[in-house]
Amino acid sequence: MIIGIPKEIKNNESRVGMTPAGVLELTHKGHEVFVQSGAGVGSGFTDEDYLKVGAQILDTIAEVYGMSEMIVKVKEPIREEYKLIKKGQIVFTYFHFASSEPLTRAMIESQAVCIAYETVEDEERTLPLLTPMSEVAGRMAIQQGAKYLEKPVKGRGVLLGGVPGVPPGRVLVLGAGTVGIQAAKMAAGLGAHVTVLDVNMKRLRYVNDVMPPHVVTEFSNEYNIRKHIKSHDLIVGGVLIKGAKAPKLITRDMLKSMTPGTVIVDVAVDQGGCVETSKPTTHEDPVFIIDDVVHYCVANMPGAVPYTSTLALTNVTLPYVLSLAEKGWEKACSEDASLQKGLNIVHGEVVYEEILETFGPLEGVTV
């Protein structure tokens, strides 16, 4: 199969869809790999690194799309890429369709085979291709939240770890999934007091078992959320409903009850956000303020640490890329129930139920 690795063109996205190590595995099996010139530079990989493992370097993104049977990316195609995607072409990437109707319509119109990393689901009902980026984003949420709590950037002026004689900062984590666990771990490591909310008692019991005593758990409901947002300095939104929009757990009216300078890091913004006032931001312009509450809503947080993120992503995507390349998408998906769940749009038809539930019946648009 001919596989294309284009350069990511989303704002401040420095990751790349495949490391040279991953490309080597593909070329060893006889597949052709086209890499756009400069695609790996942001992650620390040169064109020469790719040439050494058998890839061919193409100058433009149009050439990569035009010559490839399968495109392996990191982020969803943006408007400039819509017209480059061909009928029947496999596009394997993070799509997060539920957060963007225009993207969904464009991919329907393209007649491509859209396989989304974030909905590939294994036998244990975990999301193996989403997990490493959720781990990165959860850890980064505390890094970024701690920074934006500083007064020069309009935060409350709280040091999460505190100092002797001064109590530590308080972190509220919404969701005890991968993002929430990693955020709680990092916050606890800094010495902050951490409260984790979730509706899944098994997850809360797990948090209780593995976290230190200054990480406490409570059942998630509106009453408890309204209670805790008044007293916590940093709020991390880590809620995920697979393939669907995130629920709005913090509404606009709740902001007025928060202490001025409170920071919200809405990691769920990729799926529409779990805060009503959230809107996607970029690493270039990461925050905005509403009712004196600082919102950090960068939709590609792991893109800020591309070397780590690209290695972590290729580790988990490569087996699926190899399967698709060896067998073609139909056979690969029919033999692997996990990969089959990654199918979102096939030849103009939405085949993933949560997308239909979000938007209803959709027709394509001219792109």
From TrEMBL:
UniProt signal peptide: none
Catalytic reaction list: L-alanine + NAD(+) + H2O = pyruvate + NH4(+) + NADH + H(+)
Any one GO molecular-function label of the UniProt entry: alanine dehydrogenase activity
All residue ranges annotated as the Alanine dehydrogenase/pyridine nucleotide transhydrogenase NAD(H)-binding domain in the record: 149-297
InterPro entries, A to Z: Ala_DH, Ala_DH/PNT_CS2, AlaDH/PNT_CS1, AlaDH/PNT_N, AlaDH/PNT_NAD(H)-bd, NAD(P)-bd_dom_sf
Ranges where the Alanine dehydrogenase/pyridine nucleotide transhydrogenase N-terminal domain occurs: 4-137
One of the Pfam families matching this protein, by short name: AlaDh_PNT_N
UniProt keyword terms in alphabetical order: NAD, Oxidoreductase
Membrane-crossing segments per the record: none
Record's keyword annotation contains Signal: no
Enzyme Commission number(s) from the entry: 1.4.1.1
Record-stated family: Belongs to the AlaDH/PNT family.
Protein name per UniProt: Alanine dehydrogenase
Organism, as annotated: Robiginitalea aurantiaca
Annotated gene: ald
